Amino acid sequence: MSVVTFALCILVVIVSADPKDAIVKGGGSSFPLQPYSAALTDFNQIYQGVQAAPYLSGTSISAQQSVTLGTLNWAGSDVAIQPGNPGIIALPAIAGGMVVVYNLPGISTRVKLNRKILPRIFDGTIVEWNDARILQDNPFLANITSRIRIVRQGPTSGGTINVSKFLAQIDIQHGINPSPFSNSKVLQSVANSLLGKNAPAVSIMVGAIPYTIGYLNQLDGQDAITTAGSTVQSALIQHQDGSFVGWSMEAVNIAVRSISTDTAQTSSVQDSNLIAYDSPAPGAYPLAVISNFVIKPTNISMNVMETIATLKFLWIFIQNPLYATNYTYGSIANTAAGLKTLNYLKTITYPDGVTPIYGQSICDIDVDGTYKNPCVHGHCIDPYPFQQPFQVCICDYGYQNVYKNDCSEPTPLIIPGFVSKIQITLFLLALVIVLGFSYLIVTRRNEPDVKTFLVGCLVGCVAVLTQGLSTSDVVCRANIVLPAVAFGMIFSMILAKAVRIFLIFGYSKVARSHFLKDAFLIACCTVVAIVEGVLAWHMFTAANIQPALATFDQSSDTIWDCAAPASDTDTANQEFGGLIGFNAIILALCIAMGLLTRKASQKFDESKKVGIVISIRSELWYSSYHAEHVLHSSIV
Questions:
Q1: Residue 7: Cβ-neighbour burial (10 angstroms; 0-12, 13-18, 19+)
Q2: pTM (2 decimals)?
Q3: What residues have CB less than 8 Å from 281, skipping those under 6 apart?
Q4: Was domain 94-266 assigned CATH 3.30.1330.30?
Q5: Is the domain covering 3-91+290-345 a CATH 2.70.50.50 domain?
Q6: What does the pLDDT look like over 541-599, one tens digit per residue?
Q7: Which CATH class is domain 421-635?
Q8: How many other CB atoms are there within 10 angstroms of residue 424's CB atom?
Q9: Residue 278 burial (10 A CB sphere; 0-12, 13-18, 19+)
């Protein structure tokens, strides 16, 4: 399982609206190629709307130039910022180690190289494996009469530059100043040496040619050592305290953790002088190396989304140690070096040069894993910073964001935002109509057919009012069941009375049947209303409709709404289609019977009632539709 996938459980976050517009480009030193590549792969899986291009392995120096020119958003670099690259900076990113590898067939004991002889081997002064100075710590090499052959990397490679710096430093400590390694090109002039075009080539050459010695990063070094049948080993390097230390992740971590906060904070980002090699901490690996992120903070990209995505990627890499440790590198998370990088990233601004990108969202987490304003009753969907202002806390059920973004506001009875003059007017109008229908139901209690219409209208108006209530399980059920029941009560009675009018108008004998009495019609309408309610209730249950949190693009609001889970969307559509189909049949029959009885209004008072009810209900439907439309628009 990948690192961030493990950490975030396949979290997917929208970063930009158009993925073609945001492509984060990085490249540079081959030293951290594997950790960076793994992180970029995860980044593409986690964040939609932005693409992270594959890491372009090359050299630190060429990558610095690419960042300066703007062809890369960020780079990996193992060396100091080179002259001629104005505006770029280096920030600690990952720790590793340079290992001195050698091929001595038949020798199983690891060679010890002390601080005096190591520089002399690489400047060509010591040329034989059984040199007396080497034998002081390695008497088992007495019978090796072969000459030492150096396999070197190019003068601009990070490996050559870092090894040269280390050798120059220990030369100076032993009174050799200036050291020949003050110029990294000295390795290129050693007689009888071999040039590997890159680190993998050096690994192959040392493994294939006996009695050679070279320098590699720990990953390529381990490849050379662990190859089947290999006689390659890594040397033990002498520590300042006189002990000999071999490369290990723990030894590298000791070196990195020994960097104090003061040292990290006072180191310049312009020349990347924060170093981890030759640490005095006991057990620290002498050739530990810190590789850097290189960026141009004033112009990471002309595309703001690329800038944000670049900062987010760099932050994620630092804060997820497994990217480093999975490939035997040292993570700088929770170290002085790592905090230096994260705190600097927080200072980078938008193109105006004033507004920081960090801190615009309540969900921007700090370097210590805390929030300035934590979500009170909710959570942030993206656990990393550099989020846009509309990205806010996702609220638990019963809480909302309207005036604040921290989910501290309990959900009120009435939907928040129900405040415009139009909405209030429509709400009050519906309330008056509900009260009016309630009054008419009482006063017309001797007219059961009219009361049936009125009860249906009352239920329908109540259904309109429930649209203004905050979401709950009860409200979700009411929003589905009440309109269906109201429709069934009203239009089934309209249909029943239209049929009776039709029969009276054309079939007087049939009309005398007790099956056309008001009581029977009301009973039939009650059955239809119950069927409507059952269908609506079944739709609610089968589609698993429940309160669900809705968020909106470019908005700081979140709101709970009634919705079916994505897995039940098809079921909801099918159930809703069945309910609509049932009502469509009733409505079609009403229209048909209305056409057949259109002349009866001149003769029958009951037909006039039907026409009035249809008109009133049509007006109420039109008003409620616009009320809901206005309300929905204001929320979105």
A1: middle
A2: 0.72
A3: 254, 255, 257, 258
A4: no
A5: no
A6: 888 888 877 766 555 556 677 888 878 888 888 888 888 888 888 888 877 877 777 66
A7: mainly alpha
A8: 11
A9: buried
